[in-house]
Amino acid sequence: MRTLTGRLVVATIVVALASVLVTGVGMIGLFRQGVEQAARTALGRDADTVAATLEDRRIRRNGTPVGLPALQRRLSPRGVTLAWAGPAGPPGGAPPAPITEADLATVRSTGTLADRRTVGDTAWLFEGRPSGDGVVVLAQPVSAAQEGVAPPRRRLLLPLLLGLAGGALAGLVLARQLTRPLAALAAAARRLTSGQRDVRVPPEGPLEVADVAQALGGLASALAGSEDRQRRFLLDVSHELRTPLTAVSGYAEALADGVVTGADVVPAAEVIRDEAARLRSRVEDLLALARMEADDFRVVVAPADLAELVRAAGRAWQARADAAGVRLSVDVPDVPLVVHTDAERLRQAVDALADNALRVLPGGAPLVLACRPAAGGAVVEVRDGGPGLAPEDLAVAFERGRLTERYRGDRPVGSGLGLALVGELARRLGGHAEARQPAEGGVAFAVVLPAGDLPAGDHPARDIAAGDAAENPNTARTLPEPGGHPRVPR
To answer: Are both 98 and 147 inside the same structural domain?
Structure first.
């Protein structure tokens, strides 16, 4: 019973047994009716034979046909009682029990008798016929009559037992047809668990089981692709971390060994500081991605002015843009552009896009931080006039490490975490990230935000209470409308 095969076999046996019992009950009733009808027919034939025999024997002794006692003796072993009555009545004045004078009179008046009645505790069959100038009546207990014509009971039980055995066999065949593909699926799942990824199970069996086989094959392919991307990602991250670690360890050893002294100490320390900052940035990116994939990632929703957010980002990145010779500009509406979002998370995305752009832009190239209203929401974007991306790379720009792998050696690239962070942040904010080719000639990365609240279920923790405004007044405040009237948070 612990296996599917055992349960199916038992279930089919139970169903077959119930069918056999129902059929048996019906058959027993029909069997009894048929046996009684056959017994009545047999007794009627005996009555016809006795009546014809006594009619042929016209010689009588003491008023009784010759041969009547012999006929009675021949019928007695079957429990048949014989009564004969001539014109003067039955010999001895009364018929033998259970035959009555009324039975004899019925035969005289109607010419026949076919009756069934209970005398005492015994059910009897009665058959009567005219015989010359007299009448003949035969009586036989129903039980004795049925024993004489009923077939052996095993002939009745045999079909029922065969039906039960057929049900069990059908259950076994059905169970094997179901469990064989399921066993193959279980074996494939175990191989998949052990690390094998080229697992394929031919779809066979019922449609539902075949669907599971196809789903398992798709899962194996998805796991193989995911693990391949993970390996490439780890290789890219290790490569990115190895470079600053080499610089830090090299200058640290030089300082420790006294190779770098005097005026060279300060530049060496600056290199160590800068490379340590790069390491910290990479680690923070990794931690940010890990937190966003965890269940406790917090999104604080409040009204936010995107125009002011982009202006603040422009002021923060102006110094680095000037140092790199990049022409940084801000393109925002003259009036507040207010949406419900997490301003800190959105600023994190803008900073990641600006950092990526400044890494690859040559001197004199434009860099634009912008926001604008859009149908059903708003868009925050970072456009540049850099080398840009191939059209086929725009659709996969926010996948981890895809652009790093694609452009390594052709241009300065990072770990591939920044754009992945932006894509995940956009999703957690209820929108999405997209890449396109702008008028500046390079690439534009945009975060498209909805106008309303974040979708339920897409962020496990959401702080929209008034207490959040008190803790962070810069992200949860009432902003004026273009006409000077306050905008009430939705």
So the answer is: yes
Average pLDDT per consecutive 10 residues, the chain (490 residues; last block may be shorter): 65 74 64 75 88 71 69 87 84 85 91 90 92 88 75 61 76 74 82 80 76 82 77 63 74 84 84 79 66 63 93 92 93 93 90 87 93 90 88 80 60 62 87 90 91 45 34 32 32
pTM metric for this prediction = 0.44
What does the H/E/C string look like for 39-90?
HHHHHHHHHHHHHHHHHHCCCEECCEECCHHHHHHHHHHHCCEEEEEECCEC
Task: Count CB atoms within 10 A of the CB of residue 76.
Answer: 11
Domain with 344 in it: 298-471
458, 326: one domain:
yes
Number of alpha helices (DSSP H) and beta strands (DSSP E) in the chain: 13, 15
445 bridge partner residues: 382, 435
Number of domains in the chain: 3
Sheet holding 327-331, edge to edge: 327-331, 366-374, 377-384, 444-450, 432-436
163: its two tokens: 């039906």
Based on the fold, state whether residues 255 and 343 are members of the same structural domain: no
